[in-house]
């Protein structure tokens, strides 16, 4: 098999302007950008100046030589790993393929059509946007959220049509490699099944399938150290199949664990194919892991409903992680290094699960290889997203199913051996939308022909997908995200997973209500925050006149419905804030950081031990927006962008969105506050004001108490003996502080309630006019060696009521470490929400170890600052005198 990566050129159909292709695989915008034929759509309003690209027809062509020896083989195939999306492929003038699905690899037999010497391959990509419009005309208009409704008929990454965080960029081209494969016989499939039973003994079987012409196969399984564990030679049966299997007892099984719970050993299985002359003609190696995964939906103790939790090797895992969207609008620019940077960032942020969301792509192999290596659990959606209909949801007509089945079979086959993938989900939010639109959705009905209802896609999610998943893999299938099961609607908080969008979308609840909004597994929730000011400046492209919040350019880089109102709603309810762009970046970031950290803190508290896993996971929307790793060089200055330098965890372009890391891989402060909440040991506290009236009649005679609750959370599998150190400070009284220390025991893999009582220093109030004191409660868990294992400061809220002391009175000190690569912060009065930056942004960027820091007297904090090189720093915090 050889890659056809040379001699490619492309042109717009109808023109004779051929341009050499700069790299293969590729897509049109990437090439036009490099040729400076289009402006960078990530800057200013230029997105709209490139819309014509998606409505034009493009031709890619190449020529390649074929030798007599290749031609002499009984089989010669052309293999297209990915064509985006509608494409007609001609070989030497003859049509050999009409492709119609971006997600499906195609293999075409061309023996007899290919010739010795020079061959010409021409691929026409008509506008997929127009194709979709035609399909929509023939098959009906379906209403939806996000993008153009014609997308529901097209098997192309749905986010290309624009999303509430992404631009409209309809890519086209050969987005995955093209190969020529001349062979006598080949392996058409190598399926490794690794079954681990409840006693953690393993049984491994390898099924190899070959095309006619193969004589025998040798299968070799190696352990993670590379030593041969099992070897077998076998002939094929009449269907071209053969299999071998063997067992490993629990002592010999090197189990794969999610990060934080053990190692990630990877086994390999190699099938080597021989012809009748004992010549090796093909070989294929699959990597796999040994792990037992269960999605546990058991009855709970003391609460209604059932768990929805992941158990790996008999350990129940609280899944704290992120949702993943494609890392770029231009997928071919996402290098393995960029994937690694994103995924390592997640692990560094104490996350252990990533959900590949249904409006993007089945990710590149390297993505899953990295998840296997890093121990990140993967929740994999099938590629359907937000097909909302007033009268119908995602179509399911015959021609669409014909396009769909090969896509699903190919991707399940490609992904099934990754130990990291623990669940397949049918779609993103389609049941939710069916419920909201009162479609024909009777959960008790499991037998009708759903294609006759106005929710025809139930046929896909309940028949087509589960049949393929079961036939081809051992991975758990879940009908959708969210989906409850047990006849319950998908907003049910006691079954299955939920998307909790009543903060930000929906009823726009205060984030303080997260505890009332919990679910058994929250697979989406989020809050917007601006990206780093450098990212903002990137999309401003040097335009100074519009460098203010909510300018036309600024707003083109926020695609969310009602974002001006919603950002301001949450700011206004909570912060006394300024409105210049630098301040707006700061305040929206702090707001996001507070919102998301509270969710993780409060939901992790609901992980209370076996039988009491009331909440078993929280995945933030969203981890990525394309961004540069902080430790990579700063992005090149506008106007021309070179994509290769970019890496991203999850925005697909520079934008204000829910991402916790921006397009250029610059973490927002929320990334760090989430990391603290997902650390192996964490500590939390709540305060609530409780008003009690003297009797049933009076409104004048009352008492306002301020009870506090403190708990600790432990993800480790051992009991932790430590010390809880509580200290209360009053912003107005330097000479007062009150607190105590207590010995504590944190139960293994659970949260433990530690203390409750009245907020120290705050008397019971008798009048609402009596201003409560601005008491800050610092809670820390200290290990036996004196190390701070966890810290949290509980502040009075809303923050806007706090009367902050003058900056000079704070006693805030910053001391740069002797190597110039760390900063120690100390203070005489509590300070909330410190964000650090270099004073002069023109130099190299710093990789900070923490952000959004709450500081109290007597608890100095040292922050890593890789790349600071001793330079001067600048701090923002609440009450820094700017608002
Ligand atoms: C969720 C997702 C996305 C969307 C996000 C923010 O429901 O599934 O479709 O981008 O909300 O609105």
From TrEMBL:
- What residues does the Beta-mannosidase-like galactose-binding domain cover? 8-176
InterPro entries attached to this UniProt entry = Beta-gal/glucu_dom_sf, Beta-mannosidase-like_N2, Beta-mannosidase_GH2, Galactose-bd-like_sf, GH, Ig-like_fold, Ig-like_GH2, Mannosidase_ig
Q: Tell me, which GO biological process terms does this entry list?
A: carbohydrate metabolic process; glycoprotein catabolic process
Query: Signal peptide location in the record?
Result: none
- Short name of one Pfam family: Glyco_hydro_2
Pathway field? Glycan metabolism; N-glycan degradation
Q: Which UniProt keywords apply?
A: Glycosidase, Hydrolase
Q: What is this protein called?
A: Beta-mannosidase B
Q: What is the scientific name of the source organism? A: Exidia glandulosa HHB12029
């Amino acid at each position: 098999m050889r890659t056809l990566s040379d001699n490619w050129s492309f042109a717009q159909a109808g023109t004779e302007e051929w341009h050499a292709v700069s790299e293969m695989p590729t897509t049109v915008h990437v090439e036009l950008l490099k040729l400076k034929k289009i402006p960078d759509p990530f800057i200013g309003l230029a997105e709209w100046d490139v819309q014509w690209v998606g409505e034009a027809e493009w031709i890619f062509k190449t020529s390649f030589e074929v030798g007599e020896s290749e031609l002499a083989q009984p089989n010669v195939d052309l293999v297209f790993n990915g064509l985006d999306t509608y494409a007609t492929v001609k070989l030497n003038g003859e049509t050999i393929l009409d492709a119609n699905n971006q997600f499906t690899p195609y293999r075409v037999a061309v023996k007899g059509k290919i010739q010795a010497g020079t061959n010409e391959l021409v691929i026409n990509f008509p506008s997929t946007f127009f194709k979709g419009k035609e399909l929509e005309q023939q098959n009906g208009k379906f209403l939806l959220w996000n993008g153009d409704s014609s997308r529901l008929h097209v098997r192309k990454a749905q986010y290309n049509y624009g999303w509430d965080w992404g631009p409209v960029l309809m890519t086209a081209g050969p987005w995955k490699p093209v190969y020529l494969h001349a062979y006598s016989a080949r392996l058409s499939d190598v399926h490794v099944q690794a079954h681990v039973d409840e006693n953690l003994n393993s049984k491994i079987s390898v099924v190899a399938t070959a095309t006619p012409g193969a004589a025998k196969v040798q299968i070799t399984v190696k352990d993670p150290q590379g030593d041969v564990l099992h070897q077998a030679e076998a002939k094929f049966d009449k269907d071209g199949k053969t299999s071998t299997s063997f067992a490993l007892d629990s002592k010999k099984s090197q189990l794969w664990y999610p990060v934080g719970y053990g190692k990630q050993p990877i086994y390999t299985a190699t099938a080597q194919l021989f012809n009748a002359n004992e010549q090796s003609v093909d070989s294929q190696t699959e990597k796999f892991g040994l792990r037992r995964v269960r999605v546990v939906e058991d009855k709970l103790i003391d609460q209604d409903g059932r768990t929805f939790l992941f158990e790996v090797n008999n350990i129940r895992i609280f899944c704290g992680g992120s949702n993943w969207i494609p890392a770029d609008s231009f997928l071919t620019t996402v290098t393995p290094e960029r994937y690694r940077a994103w995924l390592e960032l997640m692990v560094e942020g104490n996350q252990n699960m990533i959900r590949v969301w249904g409006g993007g792509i089945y990710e590149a192999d390297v993505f899953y290889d990295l998840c296997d290596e890093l121990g990140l659990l993967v929740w994999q959606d099938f590629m359907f997203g937000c097909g909302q209909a007033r009268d119908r949801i995602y179509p399911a007509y015959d021609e669409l199913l014909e396009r769909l089945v090969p896509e699903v079979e190919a991707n399940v086959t490609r992904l099934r051996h990754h130990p990291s993938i623990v669940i397949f989900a049918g779609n993103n939010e389609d049941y939710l939308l069916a419920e909201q639109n009162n479609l024909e959705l009777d959960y008790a009905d499991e037998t009708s022909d759903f294609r006759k209802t106005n929710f025809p896609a139930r046929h896909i999610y309940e028949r087509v997908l589960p049949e393929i998943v079961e036939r081809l893999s051992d991975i758990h299938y879940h009908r959708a995200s969210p989906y409850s099961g047990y006849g319950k609607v998908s907003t049910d908080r006691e079954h299955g997973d939920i998307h909790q969008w009543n903060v930000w979308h929906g009823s726009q609840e205060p984030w303080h209500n997260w505890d009332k909004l919990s679910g058994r597994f929250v697979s989406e929730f989020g809050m917007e925050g601006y990206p780093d000011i450098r990212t903002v400046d990137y999309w401003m492209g040097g335009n100074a006149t519009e460098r203010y919040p909510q300018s036309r350019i600024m707003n083109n880089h926020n695609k969310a419905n009602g974002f001006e109102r919603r950002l301001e709603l949450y700011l206004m309810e909570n912060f006394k804030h300024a409105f210049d762009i630098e301040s707006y970046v700061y305040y929206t970031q702090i707001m996001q950081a507070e919102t998301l950290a509270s969710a993780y803190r409060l939901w992790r508290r609901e992980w209370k031990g076996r039988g009491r896993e009331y909440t078993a996971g929280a995945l933030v929307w969203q981890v990525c927006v394309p961004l540069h790793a902080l430790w990579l060089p700063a992005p090149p200055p506008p106007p021309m962008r070179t994509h290769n330098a970019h890496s991203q965890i999850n925005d697909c372009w520079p934008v204000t969105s829910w991402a916790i890391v921006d397009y250029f891989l610059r973490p927002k402060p929320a990334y760090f506050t989430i990391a603290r909440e997902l650390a192996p040991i964490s500590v939390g506290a709540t305060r609530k004001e409780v008003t009690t009236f003297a009797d049933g009649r009076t409104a004048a005679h009352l008492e306002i108490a301020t009870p506090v609750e403190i708990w600790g959370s432990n993800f480790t599998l051992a009991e932790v003996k430590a010390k809880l150190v509580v200290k209360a400070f009053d912003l107005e009284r330097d000479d007062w502080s009150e607190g105590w220390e207590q010995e504590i025991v944190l139960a293994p893999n659970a949260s433990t309630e530690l203390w409750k009582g009245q907020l120290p220093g705050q008397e019971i109030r008798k009048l609402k006019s009596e201003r409560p004191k601005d008491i800050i409660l610092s809670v820390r868990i200290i290990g036996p060696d004196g190390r701070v294992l966890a810290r949290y400061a509980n502040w009075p809220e809303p923050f806007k009521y706090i009367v902050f002391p003058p900056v000079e009175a704070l006693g805030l000190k910053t001391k740069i470490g002797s190597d110039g690569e760390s900063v120690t912060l100390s203070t005489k009065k509590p300070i909330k929400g410190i964000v650090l930056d270099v004073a002069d942004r023109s130099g190299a960027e710093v990789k900070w170890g923490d952000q959004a820091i709450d500081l109290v007297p007597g608890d100095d904090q040292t922050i890593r600052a890789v790349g600071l090189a001793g330079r001067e720093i600048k701090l923002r915090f609440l009450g820094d005198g700017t608002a």
